[in-house]
Structure formats: C-alpha cells, structure tokens
Amino acid sequence: MLVVGMTAMAQSLDEVFTKYKANPSAEYVTIGKDMINMMLSMAASAELSDEDRKQMELFKDIDNMTTLTIPDMDEAKAETFLNDVRNALKKGYELKEMNDTEDNVVIASKKNKKKDKYASEIVIAACSGNEAVLMLITGKLDQENLGSLMSLGK
Length: 154
Hints:
The protein has helices spanning 2-9, 13-21, 33-44, 50-58, 75-88, 146-152, and strands at 27-32, 62-70, 94-99, 103-110, 118-128, 131-142. With 154 residues, the chain is α+β, with helices and mostly antiparallel strands. The protein has one domain (11-152): 2-Layer Sandwich (TBP-like). It has a six-stranded antiparallel sheet. Strand 3 and strand 4 form a beta hairpin. It is globular and about 45 Å long.
C-alpha cells in the first residue's frame, strides 16, 4: 500500500505542468523555434544595449521554451509546487537548488550524454513572494550560460 502511494506521488514534468496549468489564474506559454527565430531577426535590426544583445545570443541555441506562471501561491502551496517539481526531476536530471531570503529556486539540467558539455533541457522553478514560475528550455544549451538563462525568466 505504501509503494502505491509513493508511486502516485512521482510525476513527470509534463504532469506537473498539466496539474498547475489547470489553475484558472495560471498563464501557460510555449514559444517554439519559429517564434524564437523571428525574435532574433527583429533583434538583429533593433537598437539594443550590449547586455541585451548578449542575452539575445542565448536564444539561438534554444529550440523551445515553455513557461508556466502561477499567481496567488501561499507558502504551503509554493512548497508543494517545488516538491512536485523536485520529484519530477529525480530521474534523469542533475538537480541544483538555490535558496536565499527572497526566492526559492530549483534548477535542473538533462544531458543526452554524461560527458556532454551541453544540456538538452534546463528546468527552472522558482517561488518568490506569492508567485511561482516553472520554465522548461530545450535545445543544445551551454550550461556555462545557466545564470544568463535564469535571468530570462525575471
């Protein structure tokens, strides 16, 4: 009986997205490669600061971005949300956690090969104030740019 209960708790990342996007106030957005390429084309002719140009360069390695934003999360719901994300990432992902006084952040990456420098997926989940965000970025992603990728969600 206990094994069944624990199995029911284990979820895939898709199941976490499905569960939380059911919230009527949640915002769920997927941006595919075509839209990313269009943004890059527009940015190429725009007047951007050096910092903005550097961030736009990160997009060329991204194939897809899925973002779920959930407002009105109290502390208990936020902890449940982060635990659901952590459970979904236990298999196949390298998990990192960052906690400071304002934010609780879970970051994970998934590589196609162990020695590969690039991740095929990066997952960022964060709870700050009364809002939670879950972001899945897919592509050939240089993990050295992880900090810069995180700032895309802010």
